[in-house]
Amino acid sequence: MTTFPPGFLWGSATASYQIEGAVAEDGRTPSIWDVFSHTPGKVLGDDTGDVADDHYHRYADDVALMARLGLQSYRFSVAWPRITPQVTADELGPVNPAGLAFYDRLVDALLAAGIAPAATLYHWDLPQALEDAGGWTDRRTAERFGEYAAVVAERLGDRLSMVITLNEPWCSAYLGYASGVHAPGRTEPAAALAAVHHLNLAHGLAASAVREAAPGTDVALTLNLGWFQPASGSAEDADAVRRVDGLQNRVFLDPALNGRYPADVLEDTAAVTDWSFVREGDLELIHQPLDALGLNYYFPVLVGRAAPGRAPERADGHGDEPASPWVAADDVEFPQLPGPYTDMGWPIDAEGMRALLVRLSQEHPGLPLYVTENGAAYGDGPGPDGAVHDEQRIAYLRGHLEAVAQAVEDGADVRGYFLWSLLDNFEWAYGYSKRFGIVHVDYDTQVRTPKDSAHWYAEVIRTGQLPG
Ligand code: IFM
After folding, report:
1. How far does Cα 375 stand from its chain's mean position?
2. Ligand 1 centroid to 427 CA: how many Å?
C-alpha cells in the first residue's frame, strides 16, 4: 500500500487565462494571450479564452466543488491585466480595485471552505502593453513585475499560504520568443535568451517584494524541468543531454538557487547573444532565499545528437522547418519514445518525476519541494450513465503518485502535490481540444461533472494513500 507522510498537502491547480473568461470585465485590459488567440491560425480552432470555464462568475460554485472533493490547497494564478490594467513599461499605473476584489473574494471563499490558497503571480498572461514595449526582452517588464508582486502581496499576502512568482519560465521564454507557438509568437533566438534573463530577474524582484510585504507566506518558483535521457551511450548524445539540460533546467535553477549562470550555457549560446543584458548586481537580485521549489512534470524526453548532414531545425522561424525552441541547440533531436501516449502525444514514464525530485533534493538539500503540476489529457466525456470513466487518467495519476512516494522514500523532501488540472480548460495553442481536468466541463452549458478520477483523487486525499 502506497502511503504519504502525515501533513502531505493535497491540492489541484489552474491558471487565470485558462479558466476565468470575463476578459473585458471590471477593468481588465488585454494580455498577450488575448491578442495571440484572436490572431487567426495561432490557436487550434481559433479558440480563445474569452469565456473559458467562466470561473470569474462561477468561482463560488467551483470552490464548493473543491471542498466536496476534499482539496486541502488550491493553486490559482492572478491575472496581471486585472490588477494594474494601465501598466506601461515605465509605470505600473493605478491599481484596479475591482480586479483585486475578485481575488480577494476567491481567497476568502477558499479559506471559508478550509482550503489553503496558493497564488501564482505569472502564468503567462502578460499585459499586452508591456509586450508592445518589448515584453520579456525588456528589463522594465521585470521591474514592473516586482512592483505588481508587491501590490498583490500587500493585499492578499496575509491570507496566502504560498506565493509562486513564475510558472514555467521556460515556456514563456522559449515558446513565446523562439518557437513562437505561444504568445507573443516571436521567433527570435536572441530575444528568447534575453527573456530568460528578465524572467529570472522578475522572479528575484518579486520574491523579495513578496517577502517584504507578506513575511508570513511561503515564496516559491515553479519550473517545468526536463528529464532528459540520452538516445545512446555515445559521447555526442551525452553532450546533447548536457546542452538541453543547461537550456531548460540549469539556466533557471542556477541563478535562482546558486546566484550564477552555468558557464557551459553561456558558452553554448555565445553565437546567439553575448548576455550583455545581465547587469552588475542582477544575479544577487535573482538569488533570493526561497521557501520551496515547485516542479511541474508530465513526460520524459529522449535526446540525441542529429546525424551529420541532417538539416537542422531552424531557430529563427525562416525556411520550411518550424522554428525550434532549442536556441543554439538546433542540431539536437528528440527521437520519439514508445507509447502509450496521452492525448497530447506525450509519452508516459513516471520515473522522470521520481528522478527529478531526487536530483533536486540532492543538489539543493534543505529546500522543500512541491509537485505544483502533474496530470494527463484524455478526451473522455460523460457516457450514457452521465459519469466520466477516465480510467487512463487514474492509471497515469496512480503511477505518478507512486513515483512521488518513492522519491520521498529515497530522501526527497516533497511536501505536497497539486494535480493539473481541477477543470478541463483552455490548453493554450491546443484550445479546448485537450482535456486535463478531473472535472469535465461542458463548454456549451458550463456544467461541471466530476470524472471518476476526481472521485479517486478525493479518496487519495481522504486516506493519504493510494486505493488498492
Ligand atoms: O496547461 C498547462 C499549464 O498551463 C502549464 N503546464 C502544463 C499544462 C499542460 O500543458
Report:
1. 12
2. 7
Quote the pLDDT of residue 92.
Answer: 98
Contact yes or no for 19/423 (Cβ under 8 A): yes
Residue with the nearest Cα to atom 1 of ligand 1?
427
What is the DSSP annotation of 412-428? --EEEEEEE-SB----G
Backbone angles phi, psi at 416, to 5 degrees: -175, 175
Q: Which atom of ligand 1 is least distant from the CA of 425? A: 1
Cα–Cα dist 428/394, whole Å:
23
Burial profile 63-102: b = 16 or more Cβ within 10 angstroms, e = fewer: bebbbebebbbbbbbbbbbbbbbebebeebbebbeebbeb
Domains of the chain with bracketed CATH? 9-463 (3.20.20.80)
Segment holding 111, helix H or strand E: helix 97-112
C-alpha grid cell, residue 139: 528589463
Residue with CA nearest ligand 1 atom 9: 427
- Active-site entry in 168, 188, 333, 427: 168
pLDDT tier at 311, thresholds 50, 70, 90: low
The helix/strand/coil state of 441 is: strand
- Residue 434 CA to ligand 1 center (angstroms) comes to 11
Atom 4 in ligand 1: which residue has the minimum CA distance? 15
433's torsion region: left (phi>0), alpha (psi -120 to 50) or beta? alpha
> Left if phi > 0, otherwise alpha if psi is -120 to 50, otherwise beta: which for 386?
left
Grid coordinates of 30: 488585454
All three cell numbers of 448, joined, read 461541471
- Within 6 Å (CB) of ligand 1, which residues are found? 15, 18, 168, 296, 373, 420, 427, 436
168 in active site: yes
Is the model's pTM score more than 0.90? yes
Structure confidence at residue 213 as a pLDDT band (50, 70, 90): very high
The confidence band for 202, taking pLDDT boundaries of 50, 70 and 90, is: very high
Q: Whose CA is nearest to atom 10 of ligand 1?
A: 427
Q: Which atom of ligand 1 is nearest to the CA of 123?
A: 4
Given a cut of 80, whether residue 48 has pLDDT beyond it is yes
Where does the pLDDT of residue 317 fall: very low under 50, low under 70, confident under 90, or very high at 90 and above? very low
What would the mean pLDDT of 162-190 be, rounded to a whole number? 98
CA of 299 to the centre of ligand 1 (A): 12
- Name the pairing type of β-strands 218-223 and 228-230: unpaired
Span 379-436, pLDDT tens digits:
999 999 999 999 999 999 999 999 999 999 999 999 999 999 999 999 999 999 999 9
**Cβ atoms 407, 414 nearer than 8 A:** yes
User: Quick check: is 373 catalytic?
Assistant: yes
Tell the burial category of 154 from Cβ atoms under 10 Å away from its Cβ (0-12, 13-18, 19+): middle
